[in-house]
Amino acid sequence: MAKEKEPAPRGIGGRSASARIFDCVNYLFFGLFTLLCVYPFYYIFINTISDNTLTARGQVLFYPMGVHLSNYVQVMKIQGLGEATLISLGRTVIGTVLSVFASAFVGYLVTKDKMWHRKIWYRFIVATMYFNAGIIPWYILMMNLHLTNNFLGYIIPGIMSPFNIILVKTYVESIPSALEESAQIDSAGYWVRFTRIIFPLCLPILATVTVFTAVGQWNAFQDTLFLMTDRRLYTLQFLLYRYINESNALATVLKNTGGNVNINLSLVQTPTSVRMTVTMIVVAPILLVYPFFQRYFVGGIMIGAVKG
């Protein structure tokens, strides 16, 4: 009789040595990749709280040196920073809420066969992702709609997002139709079915859409550059854009506001310290919010993307 083939040797925990080696290489690779993603933010932060003279020379690389918080105190004195923060928060909250709800409702409607010319409208929405008229026609349109120097110029153009509509449509199509049909038997209309059945079931994908929209609204600054000349409507990101370009002059202004002859040179504002401090102030809020939505992110993207 032929001898039975012996099973391959297994290591600790019942796994083969090759599988354990693969896991180690996998963890090492993704650990390094994570470090590469996190280090730029860490580098900016430690330079904002370190000796400004050492920061200007590029000597602060892995840990803070000469720790102080004077950079944040001085940058907070920048004129218009508080108003710009309120504008950015306002456009992010209002714009995100309206965009998510509109994307959810339109994404739901284009799944209905009874919608008038549904396929034509959906293809028209998708086409806008690939074709646009350009900046000059867009500016003329915004000017004719009286959205220049108007807070609504931040909100109205971003309410409809073709990409978000596609995500919601794909997700809605994965929901069993029997749930909606049972409500239809009870004479529930499209609005009732959407608000009471579809919308609550779409929370994972809506959380994903919320992340996309909120990050886009918070980081936007070009619409301010083109549409707004009133300083009261400047966003925090636009101030960052300006101050990075004018960091040399701003550092001189902040340094001169002290008025102290015996000032500590390590606390004197430099162009580098101004750039990094303002960058950290702008980036920190969205970094703190993002982890709360991370658990919905993968599930929202994947559910409904592949159908059995």
Q: What does this 3D model show about the protein?
A:
The chain is 67% helix and 0% strand. It is mainly alpha-helical. The chain folds into two domains: 18-78 and 246-302, no CATH class; 86-219, MetI-like (MetI-like fold, Orthogonal Bundle). The radius of gyration is 27 Å and the shape is globular. The two termini are 46 Å apart.
Describe what is shown at a glance:
With 308 residues, the chain is mainly α. The chain has helices at residues 17-48, 52-57, 70-75, 81-109, 118-127, 135-144, 152-155, 162-173, 177-185, 190-201, 203-219, 222-227, 236-245, 247-256, 271-302.
Shape: globular
Query: N- to C-terminal separation?
Result: 46 Å
Structural class, by secondary structure, is mainly alpha
| Number of H- or I-type helical stretches | 15
What is the succession of H and E elements?
HHHHHHHHHHHHHHH
**CATH fold category name of the largest domain:** MetI-like fold
In percent, how helical is the residue content? 55-70%
Please tally the β strands and state the result: 0
CATH architectural designation of the largest domain = Orthogonal Bundle
Average pLDDT value? 75
Rg computed from alpha carbons, rounded to a whole number of angstroms: 27 Å
Please tell me the total number of domains.
2
CATH homologous superfamily heading of the largest domain: MetI-like
**Contiguous runs where pLDDT drops below 50 for at least 5 residues:** 259-267, 304-308
User: Quick one: biggest sheet?
Assistant: none
Strand content: under 5%
Look at the structure and give the CATH class of the largest domain: Mainly Alpha
